[in-house]
Amino acid sequence: MDLGNYSTITEFILLGLSANPHVQAALFVLFLGIYLLTIMGNLMLLLVIRIDFHLHTPMYFFLSHLSFVDICFSSVTVPKMLENLLSQKKTISVEGCLAQVFFVFVAAGTEACLLSAMAYDRYAAICHPLLYGQIMSKQLYMQLVWGSWGLGFLDALINISLAVKMVFCKAQIIPHYSCEMPSLLSLSCSDISSNLIALLCSTLLHGLGTFLLVFLSYTRIIATILSISSTLGRSKAFSTCSSHLIAVTLYYGSGLLRHLMPNSGAPLELVFSVQYTVVTPMLNPLIYSLKNKEVKAALARTLEKYLQHIRC
Fold first, then answer.
1. Can you tell me whether residue 190 is helix, strand or coil?
2. How many CB atoms lie within 10 A of CB 12?
3. N or C: which end of the chain has fewer CB within 10 A?
4. pLDDT tens-digit readout, 117-160
């Protein structure tokens, strides 16, 4: 990357969530706990899916990649935020800021695509149960997963390749705890029309595009569930997609509210941003563990095997 166009600015100041030292100490403990829970919860889910053959299905293949993305998503922003909460100098280099933006694009874009692929998987399972094995073949679900990663990286490369050409000669202050593309655009004094077009296309593809696929899938799913005559059948069908529906609501709800708000560092904006990038990755493994009988059974089997191994 050519870094010669950054003028004299070599670093940005991240204002973070609070300037009060006592509040910062409390926030450090809180977010350190959230981060550790995120890592442990998602690693646990990855491990259980890996070692329990009952979970070697398309749905849990998607879920394993979602857990890995959540680990990456949280690790992109939280460690730097924790460092700044303990530091007097709350700065990040221009290169570090661009790197953070790059990996946020990768993680956010990949997660949106994975959630839409998982919605299609639930559509196939509920609306076409007899044809599910043919529809969701190994070739297809592998293509959906690696296609999600590919689109995430492509989106990030396009946006960052344009961002490195920006000239930063305005105020160095970012009213946030992490670097995001809208914050960088507002600090640039060069032409950002290409950046805005690329960002708009990213939003349409990974935001509205994937949400539309999820919405269409769940429209058909709900119609199919309502057409089931027995209450038990409806309850069983809904239980197969309830965990994913909660995860989708959390991700798109907080993400939409965050990006509809102006980039001003207002408290409500920061709350939605924390929910979107920090809290949701922690909640996903809890949602899929507590709301899913198969995962709970797999956890019990794994724990039983571990205890037997210790006794031996």
1. coil
2. 23
3. C
4. 999 999 999 999 899 989 999 999 999 999 999 999 999 999 99
